[in-house]
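Need tokens for this chain, all 211 residues.
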Amino acid sequence: MMKRLLSFPAKFTGEYSTFFTVIALTLLISATIGHKNGATEEEIETMISSLRSNGFDLFATAIASSNLRFHILAGGSYTLFAPPDFALRSLHESSHASVYLHTLHYHVAPRRLACPDLRNSSALFGPYLDTLLPRRSLLVVNGTVLDDVMVAGVRVSVPDLYLGPNIVVHGLDGIFVVDGKLGFAPPVNAMKKQRKHRGKPRHGHLDCGEA
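Here are the structure tokens for all 211 residues:
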């Protein structure tokens, strides 16, 4: 009996030591894969800085302070469509917090699409682009006259605002509306005011139609 009692702690310790070793290795592998195949904190900070320097301050703040940041860090690649400040401010002042958060998710697609990819949307993913908002997709339309790219009825005004290994950001003229099929475009005066306070695009920046 005494022999069994003395042998129990060693067996107990050995089993749990093996168990925790396996768990630790699993977490380490998961962390390594996530870091290798997803965005890093450094990439997100660089993206946020690019948003601010181009005048999309509220969207930058929204990403930094919401669960979107953790979603992006969890792995994968993403395309973000940044609405102008006045549109997000209006949404924030007139909507419930849950609607605001849903709208943010509606502006993120779970794949990396630079400007040329948007221009070639039909071949890559068809007319509709999935978003982080369940059961909600974005209609992508390429213009035939002005070569503009329209997403959910809103013009992509600053394509390739940020290009990273796992993240791409495009600036918008308006905002995507969750409870409607199309987004809304702002009044002309509002857009002029927005562009007046917006920083210069990155060097060599092209319109999406020129890609």
